[in-house]
Amino acid sequence: QCHKNKYSYKDSLVQQYVDDYRALFPLYIEALNEKNTEKLQNLSVSAQELGERSTIVSERLTDPKEAQKFSDEMTEMAKCFVNEVTDISNK
Prior knowledge:
By secondary structure, this protein is mainly alpha-helical. Helix content is about 80%, strand content about 0%. The radius of gyration is 14 Å and the shape is globular.
């Protein structure tokens, strides 16, 4: 459920950002489970690149409904990710 797309977006750059962000989660969780520091370092670079793209994406979210969908989806992904990381940490 955490890794499935919830919404689709009119703007292809916004959609690509959400897709890329969502695709990063299972890779990161896998690397955490494996305790693979090299993978984690590589994924942190990808995460940083996504962070740099967030400004461009936020500027393109001029439609209030699209912006709300984006906010809701990103919040949901973040909560899900925190829950998965917490589960791994508690093992």
